[in-house]
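Hi C.,

You asked whether I'd gotten around to modeling the 955-residue construct. I have! Everything is below, sequence then structure, no commentary in between.
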Amino acid sequence: MTPERWQEIRAVFEQAEMQIEDQRARYLDAACKGDTELRNEVESLLAAAARAGGDFLGSPVADLMQQLPEEEPHSARIGRRVGAYKIIAEIGHGGMGDVYRAVRIDGQFDQQVAIKLVRLGLGSDFVVQRFLHERQILASLNHPHIARLLDGGTTEDGVPYLVMELIEGERIDVYCEDRKLPVNETLRLFLEVCAAVQYAHQRLVIHRDIKPSNILIAKDGVPKLLDFGIAKMLDPAAGDETTLIRPMTPEYASPEQIRGETMTTATDVYSLGVVLFQLLTGRSPYGSHVRTPHELSQAIAGTQPQRPSHVVMAAPRTKASNEQSFEESKEANSARELSPTRLRRRLAGDIDSILLMALRKEPELRYRSVEQFADDISRHLNGRPVIARKGSWNYSARKFVARHRTAMAATSLVILSLAAGIVATARQARIAQIERARAQKRFDDVRRFSDSLIFEIHDALQAIPGTTSARNLLLDRAVQYLDSVSKDAEGDFELQRELARAYQRLATVQGDSTVSNTGQISAAEMSTRKAMNLFEAVANENPANVADQLNLAILHRQKGISDIYYPDGRPEIEKAIAITDRLIRTDGADLKVQLERATELQGLGLCFDISGDRSASVALLQNALTLVDAIAARDPTYQNIRARKAKLLVQLGTEFAYTGALDKARQSAAAGVNSYQEIVAKGAQPDTIRDLAASMVRLGKIELMASDVSSAKQRFKEAREIIEPLAKSDRGNVLFRSDLLSLEFEEGRLHLLQGNLKEGESQLKRVIADFAKLGSEEDSGPGNGVMQSWVGESEFGLKSYTQALQSFQKSIAALESDVQYDDSRTGLITGYVRLGDAQRKLGHLPEAEAAYNKARSKADFASAKNRSDIPAMYAAAEGSQAFAELWMQKSMKADQSEEGALRKKSCDIYHASLDMRRLIPAQLRFSPSEFPVIAQSQTTEYQRLCDSIPMAPTN
C-alpha cells in the first residue's frame, strides 16, 4: 500500500468515525463512490475502533492486539524453562510481547533477569520479524541508560525470546512526583535520558515510542530507556515503512508519525519534548479540549501547543471532563515545591522556548538533534543563553547579570557615571550581537558537522564491511570543511574547542594505530597538529579550566603514543603528565582526570619498554592498573573501563615476559583475554573484537617462550578465526589486513620452532612479500628487520648459508635506522651474531670476526641485567658465545704452537658467556624482543668440547 492510498483511507475513516451510527452508511456511499477496496479498509478500521473503545488512537496500535483471543493465559508460562532461565512471575505484557521475571538455573551463577517472549497466540511472520528486529537493535546498543540485552534465542516450540537486565524501578513521571523533584533536578534527570536517545541515534536507531512508561528510574536513581519493539534503523537504502497502520503511542507521537510521513531523529526529539512537558507541568501539550481520538490526531498535526508556563495556570476544570482540576494542578505543582504562580515564573522564558522548539510541527524547525536539545537544557541550567530564544542583546545581558550578580552590583555605580556613553555602547552592542550570532552559527555548524558527518556517518560506515574507500572520501571532505571554518576562529574559544575536537577525531579515524583506521598516517599527523594548536590557544587563555587543560593533556598523550617509535614520542607523553600532575592536585577525584592519568602511565610504560627499562615499565603499568581498578570500583560502566583494564592486563603480561617472569606473564595475559571474551560475547565493536584477537596472539607468544607449543598453536588458531572475517569484510582496511599478515608470520615462525623449516621459510617469505604490497605509509606488523632475521634463521637451518647471509644483511639494514630503541639494538646484536655464524659456515673467518665485534660493541650485559631486560641479556650472552666458537674454529686451523692459547681463549670466553646465561632468569625458545635465540643444546655441546680437548701448555 502506498502512503498516498493510506492518507486517503485515513481521511475517510476519520470523517466516518465522527458520523452517528445511522448516518455512517450513507456517508461511506458518498465518500467511497463505488471503491470497494477503500470501503472495506475503512469499515475494518471502524470495527477495530469499536472493539478498542475510546482509546483507539490513545494507545500503540500493537496494544490493540491484546484484545485478540489468546491460546493460553499469560500464567501458562510461569515455571517454564527458557534457555538457561526459569520463568517465575509475569512483569507485564504489551502488544507483541510478554515480559516475565526469570532466574538463572544452569548453576553457573545466580542472576535475575527479565525475559521477553512473543505474546501467546501471536505467531504471525510480521510479529516474529518485528520481535527479531528489536533483538538485533538491542544487540547493537551498549549504554548505561539503555536496558542491556544479555542473551537471546528461540524456545523449544519456536518462540523467539530475548533476555534483558531486570530493571526494578518506577516510571519517570511517578518517580518525579513521588520525590517532589524540583524543576532543576527533573531537568538533570531528563538529560540522562537524552544521552541514551542520542547514543541510539549515533548508531542510526530511532526509538519511535518514547513515553514515561518506557523510561524507568532504577533504585540507584539511574534512568533506563526500555522497549525498542517499534524502533527503526535509519537505513537510507531501506526506504520507509508503508504498512497500513504504523505502531505508535499517539499521545507522544510526532505530527509526521500521525500523518504517516518519513520519520527521522527529529521524531524522537518531539516525543522527548512531550515527555518533558508533562514532567514539568503535569499536563499534555494539547490542552484540555482534546477528548476524542480524532481531536487528538488533529491537535498533534495542526494545533500549536500552549506555553508550559500558561498551562500551569489554566482555568479550573471539572471532574466530569476526566481532566485534572485546578486544585489538583496546585497539588501536582507543590510536589515540585512550587505554587502554580512560582512554577509559571520558573517555566516562563527559557523552558517555554526550549519546549516549544522541540514541539514544532515541522521536523526541520525542531532541534537538529537530541544532543542540541540537551545542550539547550544544559545552557539553561548553567545560566547561559539558549539557542531556542535566538539570543537578543537584552536576553544575553540578563543571563550575564544572573551569572555575575555580585560583580554587577559593584559596577552599577560606574555604569551610571558613564551614561553619556550609552549611545555608543548600544551601537557596539548591536555590532557585538551580530558577531555573536555569526560565531554561534559557526559553532553550531561545526558541532552539527562533527556529530553528523565525522561521528555518526563515519562510525556507521565503519561497522559496514567494505566501506574504507567511502570513509576516505568522507574524511577528505571533512578536512576541507574544517580548514575553511578554522580560518576565522581566532579568539572564539567555544568555536576553537569544537574545531579542535573535530580535528582530534579526524586524526583518530585517519591513522590511530590503536583503533580501526583508514591508514592515512600523514593526514592524521597534520590533523593532530591542527588540534594541538587550537587546544593550546584555548588552554593558555583558560589556565583554571579543567576541561581545557585535560583536552590539551589528552592530545599530547595521543601524539606521544602515535610517535612512540620516534624521538619526540616520550617528551609528548611527559608534557601530558606534567599537565595532569597539576590536575591531580586540584581535581584528583574527577574520573576523567584519573582515567587520563592511567592512560598516560600506560603510554609511558611503553616508552620505557622500548628503551629497554623493563622493570620501570612493569611498575608504571601496575600503577595504571591500580587507577583503572579504582575507576571501575566507582563506576563499572565508565568509558568502556572493562576493555581498558583487559588491554592493560595483556600489556602487563607481555612486560612480565620481558623480565623473565613467565608465570606472572601468562596469568596476567590470560586474565586480559578472558575479560575480552566476556565483553565480546555480549556484543562489541570491531575494534574490541580486534583487540581480543591481538591479545590471543600475545598470550600465544608468551606460551611459546615457555615452550608450550600446543597452547600457542591453539591461540593462533582462535585468533585467526576472529581476524579473518574482519579482514574479508573490509578488504580496504589496512589495519585488519596487517593483523592477518602478522598472524601468518607467527604461524610461520611456529613452523621453525617445530622443525618444519621448509614450510616456515615459504610462509615467511610470502608474508614479507604481502606486507610490501600492503601500501601502508609506515612499517606495520613485526617489521622487516624481524621478519628477515627469521627467514635467515630458516635458511641457516636448511644449510643455505649464502641465502641466510643475505637475509641477515637485509635484517641488519632494516634495523640500523632504529638503533636508538632497545629492541632494535638487541635485534642488531642478534643479527650480527647470526651474520657471523653464516660467514663462519662459509669459511669467511675474518668477516665473521668483524660481525662478532660489531655485536659485542653494542652489547652491555651489566646494564641489561640492572633493567631486567631479558632480550638484551640473551643477545650479550650469545655475542660472547659466538666469539668463543670463532676462536675454537681458529684453533683448529692454527699451528700447534698457537693452538693451545687459542683454545684456552675460546673456552674462557665460552665460560664467561655461560655465566651470563646462568644470570638470565628464564630459558626461552625465542626472545621476547621477537628475535631467535641460540638453543641451549648448542651450549651443552660446546661445554663437552671444551672439557674433552686437552689444553696445550701456555707460557
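If it helps when you're writing up: The mean pLDDT is 77.

Thanks,
B.
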